[in-house]
Amino acid sequence: MTGFSQTNYGLQATYSLTTNEASTLNSIFIKKDFDLNGKIIGFTVGTTGTQIENKKKFFEKYIDPIAKGDSENVCSLIIFTNAEKSKSGDLMS
């Protein structure tokens, strides 16, 4: 994900999931042998998925309506490999 940082600790705090957020996402994106608790998540929007979105806004616009049953899921979960995490770098500092 262009511009998201695995090494910038301010961004990590901003994008780290709370227990409730992780639980909600786990219920929406059921992946065998994968748990979002303790993970750092980047949220992207736009037709090409290259615009980084604020976590709170993303939850309000996309995740909360899905969790309440008011909207269909139009989101995707992409799990980075270790190599992809490394490549994401510190591009926003």
Could you walk me through the main structural features you see in this protein, from its secondary elements to its overall organization?
It is a single chain. The protein has helices spanning 9-15, 19-28, 55-67, 82-88; strands spanning 43-45, 51-53. The protein is mostly helical and 93 residues long. The protein is globular and about 35 Å long.
Which helices and strands, and how do they pair?
Layout lengths: L8 H7 L3 H10 L14 E3 L5 E3 L1 H13 L14 H7 L5
Antiparallel strand pairs: 1-2
Descriptive tags:
two-stranded antiparallel ribbon; 4 helices; 93 residues; disordered N terminus; 2 strands
Helical content, roughly? 25-40%
Mass-distribution shape:
globular
Q: State mean pLDDT (0 to 100 scale).
A: 77
- DSSP E strands, number: 2
Largest sheet geometry: 2 strands, antiparallel
Total separate domains: 1
Structural class: mainly alpha
The H-and-E topology, N to C, reads as HHEEHH
Low-pLDDT stretches: 1-6
State the helix count: 4
Question: How many angstroms separate the termini?
Answer: 15 Å
Question: Beta fraction of the residues?
Answer: 5-15%
Q: How large is the radius of gyration? A: 13 Å
Strand order of the largest sheet: 1-2
How would you summarize this macromolecular structure in one to three sentences?
The chain has four helices and two strands.
